[in-house]
Known about the structure:
Elements: E1 2-6, H1 17-26, E2 31-34, E3 37-38, H2 43-61, E4 64-71, H3 79-88, E5 93-97, H4 109-115, E6 120-122, H5 129-138, E7 141-145, H6 154-163, E8 168-171, H7 183-192, H8 197-216
Parallel strand pairs: 1-2, 2-4, 3-4, 4-5, 5-6, 6-7, 7-8
Helix pairs in contact: 1-2, 4-5
One zinc ion binds at residues 5, 7, 70, 122, 173.
Amino acid sequence: MIDLHTHTFFSDGELIPSELVCRAKYRGYTAIGLCDHVDFSNIDFVVPRIVKVSKYLTKYYKITVIPGAEITYVPPELISKAVSMARKLGARIVVVHGETTAEEVPPGTNHAGILSGADILAHPGKISAEEVCLAGKKNVFLEITSRKGHRDTNRHVATLAKRHNVKMVFDNDAHSLKNLLVEKDIRKILKLANLTWNDYLTMQSNARRLINSNVKT
Ligand SMILES: [Zn+2]
Ligand SMILES: [Zn+2]
């Protein structure tokens, strides 16, 4: 299993990176993205530490650990600046915390996130058909999430993504041990989103492709 969007206690996750990665490994994960919440107050503190720990955890725990960041509640006008900064600091997966019905994320965040050069637009529950098409053109992956609250709009995101042939990834957005899901939990989330196990396998292979392309560059 691959989950490109998780949180450690460098933001609001419960676990230190080493424990999160180790626990994920023993639950059958083959790759994990550490994407803590960042804005301009903490990006230069968090990302280099995640980069450092990802290197040795990959080596010793034999799981692909991808250092990343989730650009969170940054004003839409500044999102692309934050994405560039995260990449310069070594993030290999950059996620933008999208507009969802579960929270008051600033309007325009989904649009700015798609144009920012990010890899994944996370839980973009309020996304429009036009924005889905734009994500396709810009090669931004749309996230299907198991996160409580955010997952309520998975069906909307998945329907539009399939209609316009835009790539999706499945993330747990894990903040704690209990969020590292196993197959039966994932099947429930897929059913609610009107997606199949085959769709899940496609999303996993999309995630693998994203890792491969970003690790090389
Ligand atoms: Zn988020
Ligand atoms: Zn998140």
